[in-house]
Amino acid sequence: MTDSNFRQLSDRFFASPQIGVADIDSARELGITLIVNNRPEDESSDQTPGAEIEAAAKAAGIGYLAIPVTHAGFSVPQVEALAAAIENDDGKILGYCRSGTRSTLLWALARASMGDDPSSISDAAELAGYDTSPVRPAMDMLAAHNRD
To answer: Which sequence ranges form a coiled-coil region, renumbered to this chain (predicted)?
Structure first.
């Protein structure tokens, strides 16, 4: 297996900094069945275009979904889209962005909206090297709303 920067957040979800076409083989070997691109196109000149990642993923039998997140923050439709992807895909999912942080924070919000405990979500993210404190109040709100 080639070296990758995939960080495991749960048994089914991984986050990563920007991936390239060469990372698709590593994803397939890991059992990834869906790649979620959380970068807006043309965010930086050094990023691999989403269309290239999508084509390589599909050629490898891996699904692809774009849920771009800008530095402006997260929206309910983005959280709902990732939650639906998690619920509808039985395999492993890889989310990526510039550093993996936006993918992790979106995952944390989606899991909280699905009823997972925010503290457990934060602990899992921390083990992978990510900090969920920027979205912790929203996680708590989403989890509380799910319990109502």
So the answer is: none
